[in-house]
Input
Amino acid sequence: MSIWEYANPVKFMRVSGAALPWLAIAAAVCTLGGIAWGFLTPEDYKQGSTVKIVFLHVPAAMMAINIWVMMLIASLIWLIRRHHVSALAAKAAAPVGAVMTLIALATGAIWGQPMWGTWWEWDPRLTSFLILLLFYIGYIALWSAIEDPDSAADLTGVLCLVGSVFALLSRYAVLFWNQGLHQGASLSVAPGERMSEVYRYPLYVSMLGFLLLFLVLVLVRTRTEIRRRRLAALQAREMRA
Amino acid sequence: MIALLKRDLALATRAGGGFGLAVAFFLILCALVPFGVGPETSALRPIAPGILWVGALLSCLLSLDRIFALDHEDGSLDLLATAPIPLEAVTALKALAHWITTGLPLVVAAPVFGILLHLPGQATGWLIVSLLIGTPALSMLGAFGAAITVGLRRGGLLLSLLVLPLYIPTLIFGTEIIRRGAEGGDPTTPILFLAGITAGVMALVPFAAAAALRVNLR
Output
């Protein structure tokens, strides 16, 4: 039993098909539950009710970064071991990541307007997320521009590797360029710095929910891509016959 | 390798090679900005380093798709791929040729355009230094973008979308050098960062560009 067995599309389709309904239910419960629980929390003494946007903002921001990391790993697996499912999973994850980045930026702007008095500030974190969004858009655009699926997977894989280095480089270059307004870590382990338990537990649930939601969306999209690939193969066989 | 470099330079400088177009574009850009923000020195001086760097970036972008596209069309790229020198060296040489025909003229022309934008006199030296260090990285990253999009029919727009985000660190440190120089500060730190980025790009990106070319030539 090894993880590479799931590189076999048939096995991947069987297992993911069986797991998908349960994952979907869990994702719905955790996401909706976390956000609903978040709405029932008391208002913050300084931020009032705007604090509740954190239950959308932080999970989306967390996923926006982690989805890129997942794409990087999937691209590496494709480039090294040539497993098609891996390349398709990277392709499937990109739009989800782009939307997560957009959610983080949009909710941040909505929160920033009453709290900082501005929709947008050229703060290092905000700027890095904007740059991340640009990388997502470039990656998605490259996938859709190339017709041959294997070349597309190779080229986007290389782009993902180079893009990862430069996204990280930009992250620290931006720190050099402008000092920030954004607060530090919301979930610090140090006792004095972390947020109150009233907010922390719904946030954990919501983060878990977003993670599950991402898994569900990626599985569904990867399955669609596999089916599309099979369809193309069948059509090619028809044409030849 | 020298022969390849000479060939590329000759192709770029002869008629229809587009040599000098980048500088002309750069000039137009610098001439348009005062129409947009107003001719006052107080308005132009603070944004001059940024405009000059963004202008250099965009002028560089203009000629990127020529790096590989013409060779791909007439088949000489396939010959280069089977040539005894490694494809990594070919991409690095192509980037070097692009830099000599695009980046170097920009470096030479930039001080003149700096006068147009009221760049302070003591910043001119730093402008030359920052462009001299930074533009090779622009050409090499551009060669990578061109290698990825070489097989596409309408790759131009996609090329800019892919390459411009990669230019962000170079842009940040490049303008920082001029800004600190103009204010009389010490620009050593951004110079070192920029030089580090350029050195890293020259060392590693040829491999990525060559990998992309191999995929496109399959």
